[in-house]
Amino acid sequence: MYIIGSKIINLDKINSTNDFASTLLSKDKQPEGTIVLTEYQTNGKGQGSNIWYSSKGENILMSLILYPEFLDVSKQFYLSEMVTLSIIKMIEENLNLECKIKWPNDIFLNNKKIGGVLIKNSIKGQKIKNSVIGIGLNVNQKKFSKELPNAGSLAIESGKELDKQELFYALLKNLDEYYIRLKNKGFDKIKQEFVLKLLGYNSVLKCQSKDGERFNAKIETVKETGEIVLNVNNELRSFMHGQIRFII
Ligand code: BTN
Prior knowledge:
By secondary structure, the protein is of the alpha+beta class.
């Protein structure tokens, strides 16, 4: 039985699928795996205060509603891991292109950002009551604003126009598989896969901390909380998102 995509709400245009899904949840409990899918967002949200720009009808813009009540708050980063892994596996399987995850949850292909994930968890006690998982994946867009020199798409990188619908359903299948693995508490294996797919894993990275300190480091691992653990001159140091920048 498939959980992911048990209900799909198709919208022509909306401010943000994440906002729409959160509003839905605040009114009524939705079936687990409900997806809000749109062709265009007028106020797409990115990480922090960023705006997620996406041309009309060309890309995958979706939010997924889950109830990962089995997941302790301290393990919430596994949701990011399972979603980013599902995306890159879909791209590998369907297009034979190898993507990387730029920690914590950007999707990179040939050093271009082609996708991003924005997760909003609602917490009750020590458990995750519900989760709205926003996914933006650039599929057929070919032109990006000059302010986004690092942005790319699957069409640009593969050199051909792609079937967005086919990729969307392939992604649902992977999300379903990874979610079941998460439910079955397959944490270690998921984390291992995630670390191996990190951009810059196994190489020396130029880093800059929030307070301006610069150093070289290698990625050691990622904690359950999402902190990245770096090996800096044989000393292990952990950083939260926003505390460190990689100069790639
Ligand atoms: C990032 O900054 O990398 C995260 C981008 C997430 C964008 C997606 S598009 C669908 C969903 N709805 C939103 O408003 N944002 C997410």
